[in-house]
Write a structure and sequence with these properties.
It is a single chain. The protein contains no helices and 4 strands. The model has no long low-confidence stretch (mean pLDDT about 80). The strands form 2 sheets. The chain has a two-stranded antiparallel ribbon.
Length: about 90
């Protein structure tokens, strides 16, 4: 089986056969992107809350990102996701 080549245009041919030997086909081009989008800056919006020893107590933290770009795909607010993880001392995120 051949797999898609990342960063290339790939041709996909779909064929349908029936019992009488009739054939129908459809060719599509699948484009793949190998370059990750970039983010210039990301920070937590504090809404005036002050940090205690570098920590914020926010029930619903909001992340602000600036300079989000991709050279191939249009980036919209619906195509961005993030996760805020609880840090445990000496363990990676």
């Amino acid at each position: 089986m051949n797999y898609l080549q990342i960063g290339k245009n790939n041709q996909l041919v779909l064929k349908a056969y029936d019992k009488m030997g009739n054939i129908s086909s459809k060719t599509m081009i699948i484009k793949t992107d190998s370059i990750a989008p970039t983010v210039d800056n990301a920070y937590i919006v504090t809404n005036g809350n002050t940090a205690k020893n570098g920590w914020f107590n926010l029930e619903q933290p909001m992340v602000q990102m600036t300079g989000v770009r991709d050279n191939v795909v249009e980036i919209t607010k619906d195509s961005i996701s993030y996760a805020i993880k609880k840090a445990i001392e000496d363990e990676p995120f």
